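debug: dumping io for the single-chain case to check the tokenizer round-trip. Nothing else runs in this session.
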Amino acid sequence: MTKTLLSLGHGYSAQALAARLLPEGWTILGTHRDPAQAEVLRAQGVTPLHWPIDFEEALPNVTHVLSSIRPDKDGDPVLRAGKQALQAAAPNLTWVGYLSTTGVYGDMDGGWVDETTSPDPGGIRGKMRVKAEAEWHDVTGLPLHIFRIAGIYGPGRGPFAKLRRGTARRVIKKNQVFSRAHVEDIAQVLAASMHAPNPGRVYNVCDDSPAPPQDILSYAAELLGMEPPPEVPFEEADMTPMARSFYSDSKRVRNNRIKEELGVVLKYPNYRDALKAMLEAEAT
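debug: decoded output
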């Protein structure tokens, strides 16, 4: 049977997934907001759909759905537009994935969380994600899978550009630690779940090496043969409200479930391997 993925919000992670699925013969429909993006998607082998879409028109041949669209203060925009159509299509869907965030767990003061940890976000973005997860769970009959993803990085989203521009700063906050997820590992987790659906399951997606953010910058500078950027106390750092909000939570995220249930072997289990590979890719 032909497998068709409707990718809602076909951005960075979804494009990495598409690169894995297209060689397997999948048909992929990807939504976009920028008309100029349509040709980019076509060149990648993806059928572009301008958002907002007519769900009743888009869904008849779809077997899999992935939503990467962020919630807003009013809830999940996908479900506002397409809940009834998705519910009607549910019997014909094999797999539905919703990309959430490990931010739903809130601040653990550097402690560990896994998928059994109760969400307890302190910030508005985390609370909106918890609400959106609940809204997706409420769609009757949907073969839903929730992916709580740590800080995303990969080609084009690394520390090297800021270091070269001289704008990087090592922001120091006591006991601050983050987990991360390389985009290629996100893609392989999603693909593994699509090949072995388990509706209702929640998966944390991250690497094996939670670390303070300043460690990543220091190592990236070492790879570039540069001096580490200057340290700045968190209280004195000039940051956007969005950037500052990331520092409100400190936790380490366990990823045992993606390994034990989906058989995932991380391509980039730590930031050192990932940064080396990213720099080598730049060189070629």
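debug: round-trip ok. The chain has a mean pLDDT of 96.
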